[in-house]
Amino acid sequence: MKQSIGYTVSLNIVIVFIVIVFAFIGGSISYYKAYKVNNVIEDSIEKYEGFNELSKKDIEMKLSSLGYDRSFVNCGKRNVKADSSDNKQLIDKVSGSGEGYCVYYNVLECASYQKETIKTGASVLTEGSSTQYCKAKYYNYIIKTYLRFQIPIVNRVLKIPVYTKTNSIYACYGGQC
């Protein structure tokens, strides 16, 4: 009787160990793929100096060859530090992202603050009201992708984000380059 209980316990320990090892290997592979996708997006944004039509086409072409799951994700807002102070600000995603990845435009340093008159017929802003905004001197992009597991229930429940940032890009305005 002692041998049968010992064998069952030993077998259970081995099975649990194998499950944990395979879960760790699967997580590592998924993290590698998400980080690789982040690097592809980052390279395209830096190559074309922004998240524009050229970089979007390049990203779409490269992502289609990687086999990354590009189902729609809700990007929401991203919390970042404002300038060099300790204040936090929320930034929106850049339009065009949201198909498996999110891209956020982040101002690193303001060149100047500009007041501009907004001409609109909207009820929130009256005709001719002015607003102040930061004209960027340096900016970067924050890229968010997700670890994807190809297990039916786990894929919907478990979404772990992976973030990267591009190098700072100098904003060039007109003849001041």
Shape: elongated
Name the helicity range: 25-40%
N-to-C SSE string, H for helix and E for strand = HHEEEEHEE
In terms of DSSP E residues, the strand content is 25-35%
Largest sheet: number of strands, sense, barrel closure: 4 strands, antiparallel
Tally of separate helices: 3
Q: What value does the average pLDDT take?
A: 79
> What class would the helix/strand composition place it in?
alpha+beta
Strands, count: 6
Radius of gyration in whole Å, from Cα?
Answer: 23 Å
Identify low-pLDDT runs: 120-125
Distance between the termini: 84 Å
Describe the structure.
Strands 3, 4, 5 and 6 form a 4-stranded antiparallel β-sheet that branches. This protein has 3 helices and 6 strands. About 3% of the residues have low confidence. Helix content is 37%, strand content 31%. Helix 1 packs antiparallel against helix 2.
